[in-house]
Specification:
Blueprint lengths: L1 H12 L2 H21 L6 H22 L8 E3 L14 H25 L4 H21 L3 E3 H25 L4 H21 L3
Helix pairs in contact: 2-3, 3-4, 3-7, 4-6, 4-7, 5-6
Amino acid sequence: MQTIISAIKEVLSGTWPMILLTISVCCIMRVAYLIKYKQKFLISNEIMTLAFIVYILCMFQIVTNNDVSGVHGVNITLFKELTRYQVGSRLFYRNIIGNIILFIPFGFFVSHYLKLERKSFIFFVTLVVSIIIELIQLKIGRAFDVDDIILNIVGGILGYFLYRIVDKIFSRSSEGFKGAIVVVAVLTGLVFLALMFV
């Protein structure tokens, strides 16, 4: 438990001011919008939107921080990096499992907002976003790695399946219950995200 707490602190240490400011501004603007246009307040929608914003900010911190593996440059050889780490090592969890886990919430959120019925679309969206991330990392002195793209796509598709399961189970539930499950799903996603630092 202590390791998970320290992992979460590591991710949030550089982003908490940006997260706090963003959440504050978003909440104020959203409440003002709902009051002005007399719209219905749905707790599950509001929590999901805020969680997505926090997730994007945390993703920014993770993909732009220092590269702990010490690898720089371009790798376009499939599965080269996947076989570089010893299974069960810290770098294996951080670089292999971490890349998958990082994109599970992404697949979940995108599938939720777009109400996706087919996994082919989440494949395409995750592919494009992963390529953009890898190009940015190359530009800031980190590595462009085709294996990271593959792992991100696996995470995005797992997130899609998680969304489909949650949607199927709770599609007929009351709004309050759906709100509770959204909170649980989001917190679980953030804990999974933190596990990449264990």
